[in-house]
Amino acid sequence: MRQKIRKGILTLSALLFPLFFLFFSPFIIVVAASRGIVSASAITFTVLLLCSMVGSRLFCGWLCPAGSIQDQVSNSNSKLWNSKAKNISKYVFWAVWLSFILFLWMRHLPLEINLLYLCGINLHILTVYFIVATSIYLFALLTGKRGMCHSLCWMAPFMVIGEKVADFLHLPRFRLEADSAACISCGQCNKKCPMSLDVSKMIKNNCVDSAECIYCLECADVCPKSAIQCGIKGKSKRHTSIR
């Protein structure tokens, strides 16, 4: 039942993506910054960072419209797409993109907050939306399961940083916990993981705390022995982050 609810929410998120594109656009935030404006997307990314200090990457697994698009594409290409090299590329792109935005803001002080900047339906916005949505679809189709999440996502680094800050400050946040004694190595968790994580190996190591985990809870729900639990928890000694 939980996965039906999650997938229903993701489907609705994808359907509403055109209406809320303004709040997630990596392009509009740059255009706004070039005019000294803090746009709605800038506020959204800040909120995601702050919320991830408690909710980790639940947004990615439960609400992200780009994630929903990729999950649909995985029916056509279920190739595993997860490695350190592939994962690090999004941080490189994100660092360059964010540095450019900060540079533009610094050049145009004092800043103006305009949450409705470029709000509306016009050919220009529709073109940008079409390019972004198509790029997400094609990249996942060419690479594999949630390829864009691993390699290109401009939102994931904000949430990963939020998780790291919470851990550094010893704040409890949403986590998974594994019971290796209960695991029967059936491999169902690996097959269900949309992020291509080796969940079975992580369970055996009593550590299911990964920067790439989107907390969709597919692994917890498919496990016949309930070897994975979830909740708001502090970081224990065995919670060594795995990429």
Automatic annotation (TrEMBL):
Cellular-component GO terms for this entry: plasma membrane
Family annotation (InterPro entries): 4Fe4S_Fe-S-bd (IPR017896), 4Fe4S_Fe_S_CS (IPR017900), Electron_Trans/Redox (IPR051684)
Alphabetized UniProt keyword annotations: 4Fe-4S, Electron transport, Iron, Iron-sulfur, Membrane, Metal-binding, Transmembrane, Transmembrane helix, Transport
SUPFAM superfamilies (alphabetical): 4Fe-4S ferredoxins
Pfam families: Fer4_10, Fer4_5
Origin superkingdom: Bacteria
Transmembrane region(s): 12-31, 37-60, 91-109, 115-142
GO MF annotation, one: metal ion binding
Ranges for domain 4Fe-4S ferredoxin-type: 174-205, 208-233
Name this protein carries in UniProt: 4Fe-4S binding protein
